[in-house]
Design goal:
90 residues; mainly beta; four-stranded antiparallel sheet; 1 helix; 11% helix
Length: 90
């Protein structure tokens, strides 16, 4: 299970400890200068990757709020269970 808390243009994805399930450590992924977030409130397992230029075009086409992603911004693709979600940072 993952959850997120965006505050002050920062995003924290956190996997909580869960001793009964054998998860004795939690993992935090911290994004700074966040300009756009499209992630569900809970995810089960993820893959994280930096978006390639071709993926950036696809992200802009899918999201009407983003006419383009400037070259100085980074787009991260988060994939829980084969669904694509996006975090864009400056």
């Amino acid at each position: 299970m993952w959850d997120f808390n965006p505050t002050h243009t920062q995003l924290l994805l956190r996997s909580p400890e869960n001793a009964p399930l054998g998860h004795t450590h939690n993992i935090d992924i911290h994004f700074k200068n966040v300009t756009y977030v499209s992630v569900p409130w809970m995810m089960k397992g993820i893959t994280l990757a930096v978006a390639e230029n071709s993926q950036k075009l696809s992200i802009c086409n899918d999201c009407q709020r983003l006419p383009r992603i400037p070259g100085d911004l980074k787009a991260y693709v988060i994939q829980p269970m084969e669904m694509d979600y996006v975090v864009i940072t400056g």
